Amino acid sequence: MYWDAKTRIANHCWYTLTKRQLSIPKVGRCSFIEDPKLNDIPLAEYVGSGYDRGHLVPSADMEWSKESCHDAFYMSNMAPQYPGFNRGEWKSLEMKVREIAKTEDSIVVMVGPLWDKPLAQSMDKTIAVPTRFWKVVWAPKSGKKWAWVFPHEKQIKPYESYACNHDSLLTVLKLTIRPH
């Protein structure tokens, strides 16, 4: 995770997800917790805001160990997301990424927020609300790549509508995916 103190949201996160991890019995749901390394976002920050605590690294991708599940619930892994966005097509994309991991055996996932305007909207003037979210998936074995950029809106089209060119997106983001 790459933390942005100005927005109080991770600039981007990346993780590896494998078919093996997804085959391990789930450890169960964890609870939201303040990140001891940042201690920047209290648990109550989102209460009454109208936004979900949207996981950047999905908790369902991390349920293969208690430690990884616990880490996925740090407040530093959250971004304000409209409930319809978080529980709708963004969740559908998260499920699609898990399908890709099962098919490709191992993938690298990068995810993060974007702002079209300089922090025009904020949640209670404390946490910046992204105008878009992006995700890139790379399968090292096959070399395949996928990418999406979603508008952060209350109602959106099916996730397939937001597919984009992965290389162009990474260039705009000034990021690269490198083998381990």
Overall strand count: 9
How many helical elements? 5
Could you give the distance between the termini? 16 Å
What is the molecular shape? globular
Task: Estimate the helix proportion, in percent.
Answer: 10-25%
The main sheet orders its strands as: 1-2-5-8-9
Mean of all residue-level pLDDT scores: 89
Q: Count up the domains.
A: 1
CATH homologous superfamily grouping: Extracellular Endonuclease, subunit A
Strand coverage percent: 25-35%
Helix/strand-derived category reads alpha+beta
Question: Under CATH, the topology is which?
Answer: Extracellular Endonuclease, Chain A
Give the helices and strands as they follow along the chain: EEHEHEHHEEEEEH
Largest sheet: 5 strands, antiparallel
What is the rounded Rg?
A: 16 Å
User: What's the architecture, going by CATH?
Assistant: 3-Layer(aba) Sandwich
CATH domain class name:
Alpha Beta
Low-confidence stretches: none
